[in-house]
Design goal:
It contains 4 helices and no strands. The chain is mainly alpha-helical and about 160 residues long.
Amino acid sequence: MMILPKNKREDFYFGLMMVTGMALVMITYNFIRNDLFGTLSLGEIVLQYVLGFIVAFVIEMFVVGPIAKKAAFSLPYDKSKKVYVILSLAFCMVTGMVLCMSLYGLISSSLADSLGEGSLLKHYFSIVFHNYILAFPLQLIVMGPLVRFLFIKFVANKNAAKLAA
């Protein structure tokens, strides 16, 4: 059964759960890809996780989320089939988040003077490409199903029980 958030409260929890999982994996991926685990101190790593999560959550809730939902529901497909809704939402959300968070990564790398040679545009598109090839399958195969399972178990069923009482 594919359950989607039904109200703003559920949408908030679903978004929080999704951003937490995606940010954790994507930040770790970028640390590994840029060989930063051996370079940064534990405090710097924790700071990067916290900042990355905060930026991702704010962008998801206030920028990408609303735009992606509007875009996903304006696409021409059978919206009565939840699998199509989930796929279109995933595609729009991942695309928006990768574009925005790759910009965040580019700015962070630029401020740390760790970009190397080449234009900012070249670096940006390289970051977008590398992030997208992990983020989209991660969203579809791992985080989407996992978050929906946890959402049903801990959020949606609790709300249904409250409404029934």
